[in-house]
Write a structure and sequence with these properties.
Length: 119
Amino acid sequence: MIGAEVESGPLHDRLYRGWRLKDSCHVVAVDGPQVNRELPVSDPDWGAEGPGTQRLAKILLEDAIAAPTALERRLPERLSESFATTVLAELPRHEPWILWRLDILDWAHEQLHEGDAGG
């Protein structure tokens, strides 16, 4: 589940953490016990809808999907608005959060199948 407690296991290969400091927001990808990298997003935001939430949604989807084909590379752009409003805007605004890569991929898969079923 998105925003769930930290678990460990082979399927949870990457997680994303976000937190606020006094005047800034930080989002990192954690790829292992000691491998953290800050994601390249300017003025990220969560807990509300807006441009910072949209930018963060696109970066998180791009990083999680890591798409090798041209068709897959269009998925983050296609899904980012929905991810921003249904997931990121619902995160607690002033509390740290965690999202697992696998949960993001499951969410994207569900969105794509809902689109197939509805069209």
